[in-house]
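Thread title: Can someone regenerate the structure for this chain?

I was given the following input by a collaborator and told the matching structure tokens would be attached. They weren't. Posting the sequence so someone can regenerate them.
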Amino acid sequence: MIGGIFPILIKEILSTSTFDKEPPKVQCEGFDLRVFRWTQAMIFAIEEINNDPALLPNISLGYRILNSCASPTNALRAALTLASGAEEVDVSSNCPPAISALIAESGSSQSIAAAGILGPFHMPIISYFSTCACLSDRTKYPTFFRTIPSDYFQAKALAALVKHFGWQWIGTIQSDNDYGRSGILAFKEEVEKFGICIAFVGTILRTYTKDRFLKVVEIIKQSTVKVILAFVPEGDFYPLMQEIVNQNITGIQWIASEAWITASRPSTPEIYTAFGGALGFVVQKMAIPNFKHFLTSISPYTDPHVPFVRDFWQIMVIKSLQGVNFINQFGDEVFFDENGNPPASYDIINWQLINGKVPTSLCSNVCPSGTRKAQINGKPICCFHCVPCADGTIANSTADCAPCPKEYWSNERKDECIPKTIEFLKYHEPMGIALTLVSLLGASLSLATMVVFINYRETPVIKASNFELSSYLLFSLFLCFLCPLTFIGMPTVWTCMLRHTAFGVTFALCISCVLGKTIVVVTAFKATFPGNKITGQFGHAQQRIIVCSCTLIQIITCVLWLTLNPPYPHTLFTYSSKMIVLECNTGSGFAFYAVLGYIGILAIICLILAFMARKLPDNFNEAKLITFSLLIFCAVWITFIPAYISSPGKFTVAVEIFAILSSAFGLLICIFAPKCYIIFLKPEKNTKKWVMGKIINGTMELQEVQGHQKATGYVQMVQRASLMTEGPCLCGNDRVFQQDNATVHNARRTRDFIQENTITL
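Best answer:
Regenerated them for you:
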């Protein structure tokens, strides 16, 4: 005897018991044609077995089918009725009235109730539509088998389907039973692995009141989801479907479980208006040979009486079912795993019109390029704001902002890394053009001044200025003005080495020339003690030695700098996040400041010496001009150091160029402008008398030399008395220096002095 429990009538009519009389029998309503076909399939299978002598020779199977009204309580009542036998036993029957196996049930909750009560008695239970994964627990349901895959596999398939379409924000509806709750729980666990969020979980049951269905409808209307999974049986879902159609809720992509995707009752044009396009999985199906003919020839049928030993079948049937493994006529392998589950296999069903489109379902739209997700407090991870990426980071195909490489920066849209702007002082930019013009102007003025000095070298003003040292000084100033050109343009290895060393050497040469001129003035006009040998010995040769030796020290320093740790091009990223600064690293900071310090020492020495000679006669007080020029020079370079350190990027180079040009112009203007002024605008002052002293009422004021002097003292006194500051200045073709035949006049030292200064006696 094979028992069968089916929900032929899908809804139980509830009644209230007063307990003053015997409770009425259970009454149900809602005849389900689909379930009726299931019962006929069971009967057909039994008859096929009985008609095939190869399967159970000499044994005929009987059956008894009861209705469960889709209620766990009624399913349990039916299971106990079938297991305990018929109410009226025919003692003449050779077949025991109790069943050997039970085919039950379509609902998971009903199967749980039946399997839980009959499992301890080793009663095999085979379900044809119960998919709850909980039924795979062999400790609770050791005799439960089913011919449909577990919801464990369906949950994985549904989650993969949702991921495939990129839906990240979905709603769910479950039936208030083990099937719905277990299915949604398994589905939720799977989709969370993919970062998909569940917006809401609506719960329904066919026995619920209309108000409870309306609450679920309101949840759907208020939600922003466009995709909803309904993990419910057809009977529980149909009332909600009708209400959704009545309220004209459309534009939702429905995902169906296997329980209702192929149901016939909701497959109507009316329901299709809201549920068209539904997607779902269904167990693979195929046409059973002769079954259609069987269905069309249904007639009353009596239960066969099959004699068998009940205990034997209770034990052997379970073992036989566990060991079933064969290939059916459709080529499919049939077997049960250790949990009583068959192989999982589905067909995918899609309710779709022609040219249907896949909808989107997101809590928040995908963040556009250049933005990132910002989680909303209290909301699922699928709900977020899109905020722009920070500067220097981009987001294109990912949800997070990634930093750009250090040579790149984010564009305005923050979706692409673009090369940073490379900054250095360029020739074609306004600042570069201005500095270049000023530099060329200074070089031109230096050359022009040198031409003037060459043309007017025989005039008293030029002779009094020490033409040789002045020429050296003008040449060095010409190089100083050209030096800034090496600071402009893209830094290279050669320009970096050239700019600092050229600056150091040219300015050392320049200040050395100024130092030589200062020493000449001081030794000529400040020698107060007769017998001082320095005054008479500081001629042109000594002046050249001063200039060359002072410059040579700087050259040696620069050679060591270039040899040991030379300047090199350097890429600076810390100044600005949007640009790369190309600069020349000094290599050795000590060498750089040693070069500057040496120039500073020479300038300070010149300044001190010139200050000492500040009270010389007005008409030939070059010491005042040197003092003023060196004050400008020192002031520029003292302010240069803090400005150089604090200036950013290309302005560091601009500050250094400004200091070079300012100090060079200070020397050029202060020392040479007064002389050019006299030459061109005051030619009446360019005379020997004016250079020698002051003219008062047309009379030259001269100093008288008295007393006995030695040769050295005599030379010093002549120089101190302004009679002979420079030989070519006071004496020459139109000048005769007269002296008597005194011993001191004919001394070797005096004769050497007269010859050295080309004096005509």
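The radius of gyration is 57 Å.
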